[in-house]
Design brief:
mainly alpha, rod-shaped, single chain, about 100 residues, 3 helices
Length: about 100
Amino acid sequence: MLLSAVQKLILLSISRSNHLLELAEASEWDTFMELDAQRQAALEEMQLQALELTEQQHAQVQSQMQVLIKLNDQLERVCRQQRSDLAGEMTTLRQGKKAKKAYSQ
Protein backbone atom coordinates (compact mmCIF):
# COMPACT_ATOMS: atom_id res chain seq x y z
CA MET A 1 0.00 0.00 0.00
CA LEU A 2 1.32 3.43 -0.90
CA LEU A 3 1.91 6.17 1.67
CA SER A 4 -0.71 8.41 0.06
CA ALA A 5 -3.34 5.66 0.40
CA VAL A 6 -2.41 5.12 4.05
CA GLN A 7 -2.59 8.85 4.74
CA LYS A 8 -6.02 9.01 3.13
CA LEU A 9 -7.19 6.16 5.37
CA ILE A 10 -5.75 7.88 8.44
CA LEU A 11 -7.44 11.19 7.57
CA LEU A 12 -10.70 9.37 6.85
CA SER A 13 -10.44 7.62 10.22
CA ILE A 14 -9.78 10.94 11.97
CA SER A 15 -12.83 12.46 10.29
CA ARG A 16 -14.98 9.48 11.23
CA SER A 17 -13.67 9.58 14.80
CA ASN A 18 -14.70 13.23 15.12
CA HIS A 19 -18.14 12.36 13.81
CA LEU A 20 -18.34 9.40 16.20
CA LEU A 21 -17.66 11.75 19.10
CA GLU A 22 -20.55 13.95 18.02
CA LEU A 23 -22.84 10.93 17.68
CA ALA A 24 -21.84 9.54 21.08
CA GLU A 25 -22.44 12.87 22.77
CA ALA A 26 -25.87 13.01 21.11
CA SER A 27 -26.61 9.37 22.07
CA GLU A 28 -27.27 8.45 18.44
CA TRP A 29 -26.16 4.86 18.91
CA ASP A 30 -27.57 3.26 15.76
CA THR A 31 -25.72 5.69 13.51
CA PHE A 32 -22.70 5.44 15.81
CA MET A 33 -22.51 1.66 15.37
CA GLU A 34 -22.71 1.91 11.57
CA LEU A 35 -20.00 4.55 11.35
CA ASP A 36 -17.79 2.76 13.87
CA ALA A 37 -17.89 -0.37 11.71
CA GLN A 38 -16.80 1.71 8.71
CA ARG A 39 -13.99 3.29 10.71
CA GLN A 40 -12.82 -0.12 11.94
CA ALA A 41 -12.72 -1.41 8.37
CA ALA A 42 -10.55 1.54 7.30
CA LEU A 43 -8.20 1.01 10.25
CA GLU A 44 -7.85 -2.68 9.43
CA GLU A 45 -7.08 -1.81 5.82
CA MET A 46 -4.01 0.18 6.84
CA GLN A 47 -0.79 -1.75 6.51
CA LEU A 48 1.65 0.54 8.27
CA GLN A 49 4.27 -2.13 8.89
CA ALA A 50 4.63 -2.73 5.14
CA LEU A 51 5.55 0.89 4.41
CA GLU A 52 9.09 2.03 3.84
CA LEU A 53 9.17 5.63 5.01
CA THR A 54 11.68 8.42 5.15
CA GLU A 55 12.13 10.09 8.53
CA GLN A 56 9.93 12.97 7.45
CA GLN A 57 7.16 10.65 6.23
CA HIS A 58 7.44 8.62 9.43
CA ALA A 59 7.06 11.78 11.51
CA GLN A 60 4.03 12.82 9.49
CA VAL A 61 2.31 9.43 9.83
CA GLN A 62 3.21 9.30 13.52
CA SER A 63 1.69 12.76 14.07
CA GLN A 64 -1.53 11.75 12.32
CA MET A 65 -1.71 8.53 14.30
CA GLN A 66 -1.28 10.48 17.55
CA VAL A 67 -4.33 12.56 16.61
CA LEU A 68 -6.24 9.35 15.96
CA ILE A 69 -5.14 7.89 19.30
CA LYS A 70 -6.26 11.04 21.17
CA LEU A 71 -9.64 10.91 19.44
CA ASN A 72 -9.97 7.25 20.33
CA ASP A 73 -9.23 8.06 23.98
CA GLN A 74 -11.90 10.78 23.91
CA LEU A 75 -14.36 8.34 22.35
CA GLU A 76 -13.70 5.82 25.10
CA ARG A 77 -14.28 8.45 27.82
CA VAL A 78 -17.51 9.70 26.24
CA CYS A 79 -18.84 6.17 25.73
CA ARG A 80 -17.98 5.16 29.31
CA GLN A 81 -19.72 8.27 30.63
CA GLN A 82 -22.80 7.62 28.48
CA ARG A 83 -22.88 4.01 29.69
CA SER A 84 -22.65 5.19 33.30
CA ASP A 85 -25.42 7.74 32.76
CA LEU A 86 -27.67 5.09 31.19
CA ALA A 87 -26.99 2.68 34.04
CA GLY A 88 -28.04 5.39 36.49
CA GLU A 89 -31.23 6.02 34.55
CA MET A 90 -32.02 2.30 34.49
CA THR A 91 -31.53 2.08 38.25
CA THR A 92 -33.87 5.03 38.77
CA LEU A 93 -36.48 3.43 36.51
CA ARG A 94 -36.27 0.12 38.35
CA GLN A 95 -36.65 1.86 41.70
CA GLY A 96 -39.66 3.76 40.41
CA LYS A 97 -41.19 0.54 39.11
CA LYS A 98 -40.68 -1.17 42.48
CA ALA A 99 -42.20 1.79 44.33
CA LYS A 100 -45.19 1.83 41.99
CA LYS A 101 -45.69 -1.88 42.50
CA ALA A 102 -45.45 -1.53 46.29
CA TYR A 103 -48.02 1.29 46.39
CA SER A 104 -50.42 -0.39 44.00
CA GLN A 105 -50.83 -3.47 46.19
